[in-house]
Design goal:
801 residues, alpha+beta, Jelly Rolls, 7-stranded antiparallel beta sheet
Length: 801
């Protein structure tokens, strides 16, 4: 799957986009520079997918439609491809830059060597986009059948049915289905490829500022991958990552206006498609950058003197044809324009900061940010170096702006100036969330201005100064991206593969209650009508099970009758967690999850006591529920806790660089923990670790290796992830558990989350499970002083076998 998702899929996506770009170029009369073909192809494929998904019956044919457009474009554009192939030396930089940008953007996945995605759970909006991309291809923009009592239906309804932009998601889903790659594993390669297409227009803009060859290549690469843009690509901000190359391509077409403006009316097709693709991907907010491009085009026409009647007619025809293309391919936006306006206003004015700790710093637009977390500033020496490089970039930008004006590159100067002005205005009127997006979309413009400063030094024959400045610009961006690459968390591949197995086994048997905090289950369990209690949109009618979004789920807090609507419950395989009520039996168990099914005809408990499982139950409590059971002709059912041997982390011996903070152990590189644990009986025991453990840590017992844990992350140390158990044969008695971490490596994520929240052991087999006892009411006294997780009063006449 890694080869298919990280290698084959991007190649197919590239062929489809280049083919679509060639098709658009052919239709427009051959006006496009070669470096703009991929990004114009992206816009063209978005336009096609918008039309096919708008009609539900055509939605499943979207992959084939994209393939036909791409293949057709490659066929009609074959002569141009042959010319480029024969002269590849002349075009080598234009070919090398996007490939380099793609590899850099996908580096965490490439060097992990497994299908995954980066910055796991930093922004869980990606879970929505993955689920939405799948939904749009299977069902199109049809939402009447959704079950709004479950999380899956609520998410799709509250976003896509209310005019949320679908352009990027439809293209993601259509191309992933085309190659038969699960959308979840196509997500990061898609974002990396789309971002890489921005290097084409960035190259052209750099060339227009006076750079060429390797200088232009370096400028294009750093303008494509500044720290803030790289951060947004890592977190999977698919809408903004898709909009960015379209914005730059509009700017490039503004500079190339002599190729198409005032020519044949069809020559306006590429520009119109870029606008259509941007509106479909980002929403009506994309219109702000369109206005900038159009304003510069108007300025170009006015500055050219009074046009002839014939030229005026051509301009009007070009405007009319472009407007027609725009209306056709953004029909889904205009058809529900009130909803689209509402979405744009909500994003621009929302006080909700999402994952932001606070507003981003304005100087992050300058490309250097030497920390693995774009949400927070660097510290110590990294802050000082960042400040110096930011200052150098800002001064270079001022020099570059002056150079562009003095060399009379007025179209470039106008587009850069208005784009910068737009960014300033939007951050003055927007909220923190929208401001952050604006800063990201503006960052490449500031980088290009700084590289225009390099062009000024070269024009002034200050070669060594130009080399030093370019090294500072490229070095700051590269170092910032490397730090983020190293500190990112990667999604757990094996756990999601197991969820996919559950989907294939139990699809159509829902609704399903999902007790883990993991919104990517919306995609993985999409055919089980999944509802998550701690999701942003929780399942309806199950109040009290959590304390809010992302909180720990307690099945004990749910009234038994409320669970009748759920034939299935999916829980994490965690012996320390509470098992579902007696009405459910274990149907399937994997490495990470358990699937529980409600027995046919199983009644709800008429009374239930929630207990700790650690303290003996008082006779008064048992007597109280026994009286209820006797009055209703019910029997008593009690769940005994699993045989868990806990490791006391607070008293464990820690290396000097490991600290016990709040409820977890912070595991720095080159450290270890030692703890004593007493095993009551000999046999095979499972070692369980809980926490946020991205880097690989090693586990030993009595100095013997047991195994290692890595990539076990769930996004929140307060609701820790439970790693797969490590089996080991032990004798009864005292043992020494050692958990250690080596030094830092260059592996992706090796600087990511590393907190240990809990460690415990359970006997392999039945001892791991919470066993259930059925006790007649007449024997209720036998339960006094025992340890139970819960006690239920279940009607005897309908009690499940």
């Amino acid at each position: 799957m890694f080869v298919l998702s990280a290698m084959a899929y991007p190649v197919v996506l590239a062929l489809a986009c280049v083919g679509a770009g060639l098709a658009v170029d052919r239709l427009s009369g051959g006006v496009l520079p070669g470096v703009l073909l991929p990004v114009v192809g992206v816009a063209g494929l978005i336009a096609v997918s918008q039309l096919t998904t708008y009609i539900p019956g055509l939605a499943p044919a979207t992959p084939e439609a994209l393939a036909v457009v791409g293949a057709g474009g490659l066929a009609v554009g074959w002569p141009r491809i042959r010319v480029v192939a024969r002269g590849w030396r002349e075009h080598r930089w234009q070919l090398v830059v996007p490939v380099t940008a793609f590899v850099a953007a996908l580096a965490p996945v490439v060097f992990a060597g497994r299908p995954t995605f980066s910055a796991y759970t930093v922004l869980t909006d990606s879970a929505l986009h993955i689920a939405g991309a799948d939904y749009l291809i299977r069902h199109g923009q049809h939402y009447a059948h959704l079950d709004l009592l479950r999380s899956y239906g609520q998410y799709i309804q509250n976003y896509y049915a209310k005019s949320y932009p679908t352009g990027a998601d439809a293209l993601l889903g259509g191309t992933a289905f085309l190659v038969h790659v699960p959308v979840i594993w196509a997500f990061q390669p898609f974002n990396a490829f789309i971002l890489a297409t921005a290097s084409g227009p960035a190259w052209l803009l750099a060339r227009r500022s006076g750079l060429c060859g390797a200088w232009a290549a370096a400028a294009a690469l750093t303008a494509t991958l500044p720290a803030l843009v790289y951060a947004y690509e890592l977190i999977g901000s698919i809408k903004e990552i898709t909009a960015l190359p379209l914005i730059l391509a509009m700017g490039a077409l503004v500079l190339e206006h002599r190729r198409w403006l005032g020519g044949s009316p069809r020559a306006a097709f590429p520009f119109a498609l870029l606008v259509a693709g941007g509106v479909s991907a980002l929403g009506l907010a994309f219109g702000a950058w369109t206005i900038v491009a159009v304003a510069v085009l108007i300025g170009v026409v006015v500055a050219g003197g009074r046009p002839t009647r014939r030229a005026t007619g051509r301009l009007l025809m070009a405007f009319a044809s472009g407007t027609l293309v725009l209306l056709v391919f953004t029909w889904t936006t205009w058809h529900h324009v009130s909803g689209s306006v509402g979405v744009a206003q909500a994003v621009a004015t929302s006080a909700n900061r999402g994952n932001l700790v606070g507003p981003l710093r304005a100087w992050q637009v300058f490309g250097t940010w030497l920390t693995g977390d774009y949400l927070s500033p660097p510290h110590g020496a990294a802050l000082e170096i960042s400040g110096v490089l930011i200052g150098v970039t800002a001064l270079a930008g001022l020099a570059g702006a002056l150079h562009i004006v003095l060399t009379r590159r007025y179209a470039l100067a106008g587009w850069l100036a208005l784009t910068v002005l737009l960014g300033v205005l939007l951050t003055r009127v927007g909220a923190a969330w929208s401001d952050a997006k604006t800063l990201m979309l503006s960052s490449p413009v500031f980088i290009l201005l700084a590289w225009a400063g390099v062009s000024w030094l070269r024009a002034a024959s200050r070669r060594y100064a130009a080399v030093a400045l370019s090294a500072a610009l490229a070095g700051g961006v590269l170092a910032s991206d490397v730090v983020q690459y190293h500190d990112t968390n990667l999604a757990p591949t094996a756990r999601y593969d197991e969820l996919a197995q559950i989907e294939s086994r139990f699809a159509g048997r829902g609704p399903t209650l999902f007790t883990d905090f993991d919104e990517y289950a919306l995609y993985e369990l999409r055919d089980m009508d999944v509802g998550g209690l701690d999701f942003m949109y929780p399942a309806v009618g199950l109040a009290g099970a959590t304390t809010g979004h992302g909180a720990k789920v307690e099945l004990n807090n749910i009234h038994a009758a409320s669970l009748r609507a759920y034939p299935l419950i999916v829980t994490r395989r965690d012996p320390a967690a509470t098992r579902p009520p007696f009405a459910y039996r274990l149907l399937w168990q994997g490495t990470y999850y358990q699937v529980w099914g409600r027995r046919p005809g199983a009644p709800a408990a008429i009374a239930r006591y929630r207990l700790t499982g650690t303290r003996p139950v008082a006779c008064s409590r048992v007597h109280a529920i026994a009286r209820v059971a006797a009055a209703h002709g019910a029997t008593l059912v009690a769940a005994r806790p699993a045989d868990v041997v806990h490791v006391d982390l607070e008293t464990a011996r820690l290396s000097t660089n490991w600290k016990y903070v709040a409820i977890w152990v912070a595991m720095a590189p080159s450290g270890r923990l030692r703890a004593s644990v007493r095993i009551p009986t000999a046999g095979i025991w499972n070692v369980w670790l809980q926490g946020e453990i991205m880097p690989t840590i090693n586990v030993q017992l009595d100095g013997r290796p047991v195994g290692h844990v890595g990539g076990a992350v769930g996004g929140d140390p307060v609701v820790p992830d439970t790693a797969a158990p490590l089996p080991v044969r032990l004798r009864a008695g005292r043992h020494t558990l050692t958990i250690s971490r080596g030094g830092l490596t260059l592996a992706p994520g090796d600087g990511g989350s590393s907190q240990l929240v809990g460690a415990f052991l359970t006997p392999a087999g039945a001892g791991e499970q919470q066993a259930v006892d059925e006790i007649p009411v007449t024997r209720w006294r036998s339960m006094c002083g025992q340890r139970y997780v819960w006690i239920e009063a279940v009607p005897r006449s309908r009690s499940p076998a």
